[in-house]
Design brief:
Layout lengths: L8 H13 L9 H26 L4 E6 L2 E6 L4 E2 L1 H8 L4 E3 L12 E4 L4
Antiparallel strand pairs: 1-2, 1-5, 2-3, 4-5
C-alpha cells in the first residue's frame, strides 16, 4: 500500500496513522513473545498448583452459578478463575462428589482423592 501524499495535512496524518497502527504479519515467534507466553502459562500452572495444595489440605472446589455465569470458589472462600479450575479438574487426583443438579450432569463439588 503506497501512501498518496497530498497537500492536505489531515489526509496525510490519516495515512501516517494508518501505516503506524498496521502490524506486520509475523509468522515466526520471537524470543520475547515465546518468553511472555511461557510466563503466562507458568503463572497459571502455579495458581493451579496452589489450588490443588489447598484441596490436599481439605478444601473443596465448588461450582456455583450467578447472573454473570459460573463462579468457582474454594470452600475457604478463595475465588478461582475458570481457566485455573479447568486445569485443576484435569488432574487425576481431583474427583467429583456426584452432587450434580441432574442425574448425568457435571458435579458442583470437587474434592482431592489421596488414593491416586
Amino acid at each position: 500500500m503506497t501512501s498518496p501524499l497530498t497537500n492536505d495535512p489531515v489526509r496525510d496524518a490519516m495515512w501516517r496513522r494508518r501505516l503506524f497502527l498496521r502490524k506486520p504479519n509475523m509468522t515466526i515467534p520471537t524470543t520475547a513473545s515465546l518468553r511472555a507466553a511461557r510466563r503466562f502459562q507458568d503463572r497459571r500452572r502455579g495458581k493451579a498448583a496452589r489450588v490443588i495444595t489447598a484441596m490436599e489440605r481439605g478444601a473443596a472446589l465448588h461450582l456455583s452459578f450467578n447472573k454473570h455465569g459460573s463462579a468457582w470458589t474454594l470452600s475457604t472462600g478463595v475465588s478461582v478463575t475458570a481457566e485455573v479450575a479447568l486445569m485443576v479438574l484435569n488432574d487425576v487426583r481431583i474427583i467429583g462428589c456426584g452432587d450434580g443438579l441432574f442425574g448425568g450432569g457435571p458435579c458442583q463439588t470437587w474434592r482431592y482423592d489421596p488414593s491416586f
